[in-house]
Amino acid sequence: MFTTLLALSLAAPVPKETKAKLYLPTKEGTKSVMVSTLGNNTAEIVEKVRKVESTAGGFVVTMEGPSESVVYEVTGKGVFRRFGPDKRLLAVLDLSKTGDGKWEVKLTEDETASFTMGKVEEIEVPAGKFQALRVDEEARTGRHTVWYAEGVGVVKSVSVHAGQVMTQELKSFTPGK
After folding, report:
1. In the prediction, which pLDDT does 99 show?
2. Residue stretches of the chain with pLDDT short of 70
3. Are 135 and 93 contacting, i.e. CB atoms less than 8 angstroms apart?
4. For position 101, what pLDDT does the model report?
5. Taking a C-beta distance cutoff of 8 angstroms, is the pair 33, 48 a contact?
6. Secondary structure, 3-state, 155-172
């Protein structure tokens, strides 16, 4: 009996290690081009992954945009932006939230943003179709909806502030090497 159990346990397949889903690119040189529309005005915004550092739980990714560099921590638990002079981490995508998928982030002394994680949706943008996780944000300054695709990052965002709507959609995505 023991020999049979031992043989069966040895023959059982070894479970595959599941890779954490990362919702931001983690290869240096990755380039995203977004088309931004506000009213009748359209512009292209280019972002590049300038630097990637491995950590015990994921990566520190420095994204270089048209006017500034932004640093993120990317793990299987989500995407966290370093913010302010103290470089505190703000959860822009918190995958640890289960159930209602809600969390809050203190932006300033007197402003808090509320986030709600939605479901994965198919989003079509100029760069193609993506399975993307929806996140809604509400703050005193307005509403913001962002769709994150695994390994790509933001594929679409819609912001409403003071009655104006700004839309950004991914036009092209070139992975780093």
Report:
1. 65
2. 1-18, 98-99
3. yes
4. 87
5. no
6. EEEEEEECCEEEEEEEEE
